[in-house]
Each structure stands twice: as structure tokens, then as C-alpha cells.
Amino acid sequence: MRVLVTGGAGYIGSHTVANLISHGHEVTVLDDLSRGHQGALQSFPSAVLEVGPVADERRVSEILSNRKIDAVIHFAASSLVGESTADPLLYYRNNVAGTQSLLGAMVESGVTSLIFSSSAAVYGEPATVPIDEASPIRPTNPYGETKAAIERMLYWVHQAHGLNSVSLRYFNAAGAHPDWPIGEDHQPETHLIPCVLKAALEGRPVSVFGIDYPTPDGTTVRDYIHVVDLAEAHRLALEWLFMHPGAHAFNLGNGQGFSIREVIQTAQTVVGREIATIESARRRGDPAVLKASVNKARADLGWSPQWSDLTTILQTAWNWHRRHPHGYGNG
Questions:
Q1: For 140, which DSSP code?
Q2: What is the pLDDT of residues 90-111, one digit of tens each?
Q3: Which residue, 90, 114, 122, 123, is the most exposed by fewest CB within 10 angstroms?
Q4: 143 is catalytic
Q5: Under the phi-then-psi rule, with left for phi > 0, alpha for psi from -120 to 50, and beta for the rest, what region is 52?
Q6: 68 and 158, same domain (yes or no)
Q7: Dist. CA 131–CA 231, nearest whole Å
Q8: What is d(CA 134, CA 100) in angstroms, rounded to the nearest whole number?
Q9: Which residues pair with 106 in a beta bridge?
Q10: Given CA atoms 309, 311, 315, 321 in this order, what sign does their dihedral have?
Q11: CA-to-CA distance for 295 and 299, rounded, in angstroms?
């Protein structure tokens, strides 16, 4: 299959490129490299990199036609919750309008299969835990709202044009590939696990936001899913979609919850030294517990996380950060 991966030079995108190539698919990457890294693709010379934005509808149409693309996996997006609150128009422009342009190019080119990188942020404050796909969609920030808006757009584009899609609602992606030199390199970094590991590398404390939540140790509990498992889910969803037309959605998570203190304690074991902490006030809008129900993905896609142990997740991430202390800029 010939697959276009937008945002394929990013963290989850590059791991999905690795998965697709290892299963014999032909990959073209479209990335403007504003957040992605060309170095993330150096190990995959068969992947063709096109540098540019998804918002360039004419160019995307040309790529789809010239490369004879069969399906698209769409990662390209802005994804910082705090930034989305400060500049919601940027997020509507990059995420919603950018996806609109991509879908227009797909409709024009006759490409009818899309896997969309959605987010658990569409749920906002969960009504019940674990969260399943029937939970209310009520995002609490512009980032989550743009993902929900795109999911709704995909439904109507399917109704009007027969464009089939799977929206994959991730929880917290973490870890790094055990075999390829690809990992998590965001600027700025806001995710807990790389922040903890970078603090360990640099010998500085890590902030813990809120210690008075109604959880066993007072810190928030999150569902961490290994990026290799995420990548596998994208491939399985793509292959499943060809036999199941429609506009579908699946949760992707570990199905387990780990608190901030548990992550830090496990990280200390992995890195072999103490990691100091600074206790800070809660961040606005942080739910106490976010944990996924992944029963639907297991039943329909035949997917199940294989890297669900927290120590394994942290060890693979630590291996990458230790070898790339300055990210991809370290060569």
C-alpha cells in the first residue's frame, strides 16, 4: 500500500513510518519540519520526504496523484494545550483549516481512506473512568476542541463524499523504539516522562503539579501507552478500514493508570539515581484520573498493547534520551 504520512517526521509519526516500512508499505512523508525532525527519518531512506504544510491543498493534491497514494495517516497538527488556550486561532488555523485542506485534496484526488491522529482531550473532564468511546465529547481547551471538530468534519465528509476514516483517540504516548534511533524530542517539552528523564540527565528537579488530588498518593493518574504500540494500532486501523467503510473512532491507551509519583519512582529505578521534585500548585483543568477503556480496539482491530509495563516504557525512553541528550540536534 502507498501511504502518505503527514507529520511523519514527528514523534508518533516517525514510529508509524518505521512500522509501515517494516510491513512492506511504501511511505511518503509530508512535514513542514516546524515541530518534526528530518533526523527522525534518516534511518528510513525508502521514505520520500516532501517538506511543506498540509494547508497547501494544490501541492497535497499533486503529491497524492503523483505518488499514487492509497491512504493517508494524518498527524500534522499543533498539540500544546497551554499554547492552544493562549492562541486558539492558531490551533483552528493549523488543525481544523489544515485538515480541511487535506480532505479537499483527498476528495479531489479520489483518495478515500484516512487515519486521523485524534486525542483523549476530546473527552475533557471524564464522566466515568475508564473512559470508553461512548463517553461524552466535551473538550475543555481549544486543542481538544479542534480534534473534536475534525472528527465531526470527518463524519460529514464521509456522508457527502464517501471518504472513510478512523479517528484514534490517544492517551499519553511515551517510550521510544527499541531498535531504531527515534524518540521523543519536543521544543518545548511538556510531557511528564521526557521531562522527568531530562531532569535526571541534567541533575535538576522536576515539578509535580498538585499533591492533593483524590488519588492514592495525591498526584494525578494517567494512562501511558508505548509509542510502538501506537504505531502498530495505526497500521492495523488502516488495514481494517479498507474492509469497514464509515467514520469510526477508537481509544488507544494502556488500560492502566500510573500516578506522577509512580512514574518518578520508576524512573529513579531505571536511571539508577534519585530525581528531586518541586511540589507546585495544581494546573487548571487537570483531571485527577484519566484512564482508557481499549476494549473496542482489542475487539475490532485485533490490537493490544505489548509494551504496557511502566518500567519498559521508561527504559526505552531513557535509552533514547541518554544517547541523544540534545535530541536530534545531537546527531
A1: S
A2: 999 999 999 999 999 999 999 9
A3: 90
A4: yes
A5: left
A6: yes
A7: 21
A8: 25
A9: none
A10: positive
A11: 6
